[in-house]
Amino acid sequence: MNQPMVLAENVHKSFGKLEVLKGIDLEVGRGEVCCLLGPSGSGKSTFLRCINHLEKVDAGRLSVDGKLVGYRQQGDKLYELKERETAQARAEIGMVFQRFNLFPHMTALGNVVEAPLRVRRESRSGAIDRGRALLDRVGLGDKVDAYPAQLSGGQQQRVAIARALAMQPKLMLFDEPTSALDPELVGEVLDVMRGLAEDGMTMVVVTHEMGFAREVGDTVVFMDGGVVVEKGDPKSVINNPQEERTKAFLGKVL
Amino acid sequence: MTTTAPERLVAVPVRHYGRWVSALLVIGAVAGIVYAFSQAKIDYGTTGHFFTASNIIQGAARTLLISVLAQAMGIALGVVFAVMRLSRNPVTSTVSWFYIWLFRGTPVLVQLLIWYNLALVFPTMFGHSTSDIMTPFLAALLGLGINEGAYMAEIVRAGIASVDEGQTEASQALGMTQGQTLRRVVLPQAMRVIIPPTGNEFINMLKTSSLAYSIQYGELLLSAVSVYTRNLQVIELLFTVSLWYLVLTSVFSIGQYYLERRFARGAARELPATPMSRLILNLRGRPRV
User: Fold this and answer.
1) CA-CA distance, B59 to B87, in Å (whole number)?
2) Which of A50, A77, B122, B252 is most buried, most CB within 10 Å of its CB?
3) B259 exposed, middle or buried (CB, 10 Å; 0-12, 13-18, 19+)?
4) Residues A250, A238 contacting (CB under 8 angstroms)
5) Nearest-CA neighbor of A237 among A227, A228, A247?
6) How many beta-carbon contacts under 8 Å exist across A and B?
7) Cβ within 8 Å, pair A101-B188
8) Per the CB < 8 Å rule, is A83 touching B177?
9) Tell me: the pLDDT tens digits for B15-60?
10) Residue numbers of B between 161 and 190 with CB closer than 8 Å to A
11) What is the mean pLDDT for each group of 10 consecutive residues in chain A (254 residues)?
12) Distance in angstroms (rounded) separating the CA atoms of residues B238 and B215
């Protein structure tokens, strides 16, 4: 099937009078790594949060794997779904936050197995085995019983990635996953993400890491002022931008 | 400039003469008060004797029972009404606001008397005589518990509000429902903020439950009153009661300390040693750090 994993059509979103998204059209194919770039306030994080309905869309359509997220369409209106149905849709979409948002009262393993146990109702032993394997995969096999406060920022973010992967998502969203990290810890998180991309995970990544976008991204989308300014393959957008705003932004960050 | 060799120099800490003076003053004042009470017309033997009298112990047990039950009811109601208050549904949040306004805005003694005298306005309930149903125990439980619920609702609400919003988002992003998010993620973290004031509330409850004496519930104070109306040793018995309240509140203050430690998990990298473990270490003669 050639149906895209993420399909956004004319997505609008306002906070009060402030219009943050002014009609976003975007397609992310299966297995594609899409990097969203742009200055702060450009709406890229808001758009990412709309994909799993953490923010409600005001107008337009957003679907993941062919299904609308958080709404059902009837005629020309979208009706918001019940909380439980939205939760089911979210379970298929992993999300990693800028500030990790690990559950501080649970160990690393506790964080990873929580959703498989409560949402998927997996067996305890199965979830724990898989949780250990996932922590191993992100290089934290020896930190299973550590609480988040005992881990460095980079380790916490890797636990957060393992926690999202534990739900076996078909799509992973990353919201500036390395922005809160000390520079020397950025690499270990990007390595894990690079590994995920190589395994064929579909990823939408809001990032300021140009190197990562150029090297791992299949497409790069440059947003500013709530619209998509430019998109295309990373090398041409980053090395040879066509739009003035893209050039101005990249001139400052590169 | 001094000529003393540097290695001979000794540092002398600031002398706190004021502390010695104030300590002497305090000792003097305490001695005076103790002397006054030792010369007063009080029979301390009676105070001690009734401390272990069976009807007083029974009263203390009832005080403990009604306090635990009323506090449990208060916590349950508090959680429910705090969640209702924070709900986006305007009906539930208004109901909760009204409950808190009503029961926090009237004295608990008045509430106890109203529950106890409910038979005056509703002579029968569910086919039974109200005065049969509304025993002193039930009236005390409802009066204290429902009143406590209003205070607990505000404490729980503050606790829930203290949990970072990112926690709710992370939980929802994993596909957990609002109920699961509340039970598994938000409330356990809110506990750290909820427990210290709840401990205070319970210690208050141990003492406030003495108001139930006015509706004939046989708790600690009423059992003392019924003794001193016979033997007229009023202050002796009130001292006995005070000692019992001090024992109860002290025991639960210690319990609260350990409860707070348990819910501090994950907030601190390492928990501080308990006073007991420090004592044991000192007794073993471990050198002070």
Assistant:
1) 41
2) A50
3) middle
4) yes
5) A247
6) 75
7) no
8) yes
9) 888 999 999 999 999 999 999 998 988 889 889 999 999 999 999 9
10) 164, 166-167, 169-178, 180, 184-185, 188-189
11) 86 93 94 94 94 91 90 85 89 95 96 96 95 95 95 96 96 95 92 94 94 93 94 91 91 82
12) 19
Interstrand relation of A227-232 and A202-206 (parallel, antiparallel or unpaired):
unpaired
Q: Is residue B93 classed exposed, middle or buried when 0-12, 13-18 and 19+ CB atoms within 10 A define those classes? A: middle
**Nearest CA among A64, A78, A143 for reference residue A108:** A143
Over residues B118-153, the pLDDT tens digits come to 988 888 888 888 888 889 999 999 999 999 999 999
> Rounded distance, CA B68 to CA A230, Å?
65
For residue A33, give the nearest of A157, A198, A179, A230 by alpha carbon: A198
Tokens 């009807």 correspond to B55
Question: What does chain B come to in residues?
Answer: 289
Comparing C-alpha atoms, which of A250, A99, A28 is closest to residue B166? A99
- ipTM of model: 0.92
Which residue ranges form the domains of chain B, and what is each CATH number? 54-266 (1.10.3720.10)
- The helix/strand/coil state of B41 is coil
**Cut 0.90: pTM above it:** no
Tens digit of each residue's pLDDT (9 = 90 or more) over B59-118: 999 999 999 999 999 999 999 999 999 988 999 999 999 999 999 999 999 999 999 999
